[in-house]
């Protein structure tokens, strides 16, 4: 009986060991954990195994960061160039007196390099780093079968964080259309008319509210048609020494600006960034990874009233304009107006569409959408609704443009150029996008699958006696402009199905229940048998 009890207890204990959730190894001992500010440029590195060798190495590498910490902390190391000729990087053999273990002795431990918690793609010295990065050295075992390191069971760790750039200002602005006068710092007698929708226009707009000090010069304006940025917020460009000295560099949407300050047009939604950093001594490319200061200006993106795809049926529909309730026009569904009215039928978007000039132009005028009305015309400043098809200004007014399967109809609320009258979509504050899909027609039935006039099945979208509008009819001439009416963002036409990722995560965050139940069952069985045996 005692033997039987002993066997049962051993089975239960073994089940607990193998089925219970695995436990992480002991927490690694921290050798050093801190922040450093790397200087730009290079230094000479002599490896531990080869005192006759000297390598010119960039400070902004993993090795550069380690050497800077070593200078202040006196952390011992053994770094070898044995495989440098083959891989172009160095090997870490030891840190702080802890050596790599001989390979193949069980799960032998070695030093492993991670950057931003990701295993480094190259050996030590071969990985460029940027301010804000985190460099980690883990002393961890290696699986002799998979060759994967197990930092969860590391015994030592060293973390070096590169100081992130100081943010002088960061935010979103809404630029007005038009121009402003600018006087450079070095030439108080000069005055330049600049477009608000330029990098300089955006900066001056921020400066008005934030009072950011600057030094902007027109010394080379006659040669390059743009200004020089000498200082921001008291931080001045350093005298040029290639690859070391820092100065202000201008980027737009993450790309170096093609022109100097004031020479680059911008659009709503763009991001303008001023980096204080050195430039490469050969290519003159700004080294933004070495920046110590930064300023980010984001231009507010247009509000999207609605965006989605609609499936248009063949045929025509009757349309009654807002300004003329006694009129009724038969419109083709495969037109810009036909598409808009189908969207309106499901979304209830208010509108003001007029037939005032229909007899002259054979199309309608779009005066307002969703409570946003055309402003009284002042060239280059006032905003109104402009119609584009496939990214190109529509050749006709609303209702006069045929559409086909796959076409994209866009309504921009923006100003127009005072001279060319071209819509300035980069300055748009509102937008609506309709993607057209033509109704699929089975063989043997009448209809069209590519646009144009189909079978005359009339879908009456607007009642002739009661037009479907959610605002009072208004003519632009008699109604003041509604510039900034607050509206809720329209619901997407196609519902988005939520995934069950969170549910799965919640389940995965409570591991080991299967093991716990199995162990509990075995222990209860053991107790029951013991009781029966006794």
From TrEMBL:
Protein biosynthesis in keyword set: no
Start and end residues of each PGF-CTERM archaeal protein-sorting signal domain: 510-532
Location of the Transcobalamin-like C-terminal domain: 245-276, 378-413
Record keywords, A-Z: Signal
Gene3D superfamilies: 2.170.130.30
Spans annotated as Disordered: 464-508
Keyword Plastid carried by entry: no
One Pfam family from the record: PGF-CTERM
Domain of life: Archaea
Name recorded for this polypeptide: DUF4430 domain-containing protein
